[in-house]
What does this fold into?
Amino acid sequence: EVQLVESGGGLVQPGGSLRISCAASGFTFTNYVMSWVRQAPGKGLEWVSAMSSGSSTYYADSVKGRFTISRDNSKNTLYLQMNSLRAEDTAVYYCAKASGSSWPYYFDNWGQGTLVTVSS
Amino acid sequence: IVLTQSPGTLSLSPGERATLSCRASQSVSSNYLAWYQQKPGQAPRLLIYGASSRATGIPDRFSGSGSGTDFTLTISRLEPEDFAVYYCQQYGSSPRTFGQGTKVEIK
It folds into this structure.
């Protein structure tokens, strides 16, 4: 059974930094693209970032230059380093497993999410 | 690609048929269109991919159709557990984009 467990969310001040993690199990982690999707309170879904097992990275324009996605294939863990955080980054951040190792892919499994709140 | 879902809210009774629309601002490459269901406090769940293929474990009352710029998710007979928010997503072009969602509520 695929399991994705996010952690590391919390309250951070504007301009601050936070790193969230996603521990994966139940599948061969290195065979799949992994991604982050966020959802602001009461709003819809927004794709944030993705990373292939071969270390290619992709970002939404809204976070480019501020967020960095990475993965540790030896620990089956995905990370998102978030710097220069803004109030509009407040959201539940979901870790999502892609359907394959490269484009095109949809998201076939999701974690339960971790809440990041940016506020003073 | 901007995806526009309609209606915003659909008020129906259990047993009724639900028809949800997703319109794209430009053609979706190779019908790379997925549908997700999200219940309050839960993560999204994949229902449909490739515009019309059901994901593993999804009941056959859920069906997807369409091509190009117009796509439809149909729930043939609503069960109590189907009342939720539904999102379409295109994955043929970068960045992957989602529609704003359609809420299916109990009438």
